Amino acid sequence: xxxxxxxxxxxxxxxxxxxxxxxxxxxxxxxxxxxxxxxxxxxxxxxxxxxxxxxxxxxxxxxxxxxxxxxxxxxxxxxxxxxxxxxxxxxxxxxxxxxxxxxxxxxxxxxxxxxxx
Length: 117
Fold this sequence. Notes:
Largest sheet: none
Shape: globular
Mean pLDDT: 91
Radius of gyration: 13 Å
Oligomer: single chain
Number of helices: 6
Helix content: over 70%
Number of strands: 0
Order of helices and strands: HHHHHH
Distance between the termini: 23 Å
Structural class: mainly alpha
Strand content: under 5%
Low-confidence stretches: none
């Protein structure tokens, strides 16, 4: 597991506990690891979106639904979709690849959790 993937797991655990200060710290570290290029900006956009959706209790957001429903099957389907349908297409720009890579890493961390509480 890469350092970024480990940091994503810590980020997820903070979100699950609704510890937004810790989540923000992990998000900042993830953004530093991702860099400031187009890929890094897409990655950062996704990570910041995760925090906002959970903090705002946005029932329409996919991330909020995953965490509140604790639906591993849905998470696995999304992971496969993002990996195969989106990231494998060469026409995606760096920003999109960074954005969806954050999703893939988040979903992998989510599925690695023994409990989602």
